[in-house]
Design goal:
Elements (H helix, E strand, L loop, with lengths): L5 H11 L10 E9 L7 H13 L5 E9 L15 H12 L10 E4 L3 E4 L3 H13 L4 E10 L2 E9 L10 E9 L2 E4 L9 E4 L2 E10 L6 E7 L9 E9 L5 E8 L5
Parallel strand pairs: 1-2
Antiparallel strand pairs: 1-3, 3-4, 5-6, 6-11, 7-10, 7-12, 8-9, 12-13
Helix pairs in contact: 1-2, 1-4
């Protein structure tokens, strides 16, 4: 254990302490981090997400990450190359829920429900424990990478828990990239080299999750600067109003045949 970095050990202990015993199969739990390279309080949260994904320390859970870089820091000295207005809009939808709270960075959201400061390990542990105990459906992902830089994704969903009254849900697909580094030249993090995991490169709603066994297809173009060996596909089902995540899955993007 002495070879494990101190923060990795800390994350393991903080999340594993008090977590329920593992069920027969780990429950995929979606952990979103809204972050920005221009935010001086974000690097510890970025590191925490990275270590959580590496260690998978929460008994009974498979932590699935989305690092979502917002764009409202871009005008304050440093433009984050991973930021987008679409991810800012996604964060604003969480804040727009009843008792949704404020928009800030770093902010972590677990299974679309619990939102808290993104570097708060204790809050992360409690949120993941609650997520494990909630009912979840099953998402299966298949990928076809035979067509050059086009990634053909098929998502099949089954066993979804009952939606809240009046709710409709969507199937959402994301492509994330790990092991990204940036040397920040200006702004609050000037002079620092930042590392990121599970950075959202693409996120789109591909279909409504309706019927007993909803499914969807998506064709995603992989940009030339994305490192294929570091890419993952994340697919999940999310209610539109409550933002509750009903099912999640993740797989690595396969190499070309």
């Amino acid at each position: 254990m002495r070879h494990i970095p101190a923060l990795l050990l800390f994350v393991y202990v903080a999340l594993a302490n008090g977590t329920a015993a593992a069920p027969a199969a780990a429950v995929p739990v979606l952990v979103e981090l809204f972050t920005a390279e221009g935010c001086s309080s974000c690097p510890p949260a970025d590191t925490m997400l990275e270590k959580m994904l590496e260690a998978q320390p929460a008994s009974g859970a498979e932590i699935v990450g989305l690092g979502e870089h917002v764009d409202y820091w871009d005008r304050l000295g440093w433009k984050d190359r991973f930021s987008s207005a679409a991810l800012t809009s996604r964060q604003q939808k969480y804040a727009a829920r009843p008792k949704g709270g404020d928009v800030y960075t770093p902010q972590m959201v677990v299974d679309g429900q619990d939102a808290f400061v993104g570097s708060d390990l204790s809050a992360a542990r409690r949120a993941i424990e609650r997520a494990i105990s909630a009912p979840h459906g099953v998402v299966r992902i298949t990928c076809d990478v035979s067509a050059g830089n086009a990634l053909n994704v098929t998502v099949a969903v089954s066993g979804l828990p009952a939606s809240s009254a009046g709710e409709r849900a969507d199937i959402i697909v994301a492509v994330t990239e790990d092991r990204l580094r940036t040397e920040v030249k200006r702004g609050e993090n000037q002079g620092r080299t930042l590392t990121h995991a599970a950075v959202v490169r693409e996120l789109r709603t591909v279909a409504e999750a309706s019927g007993p066994a909803p499914s969807a297809d998506a064709k995603i173009k992989l940009a030339s600067d994305w490192v294929r060996a570091h890419l993952k596909v994340v697919a999940f089902v999310q209610e539109r109003g409550s933002r509750r995540v009903l099912a999640t899955s993740v797989m690595a993007v396969p190499e070309r045949p």
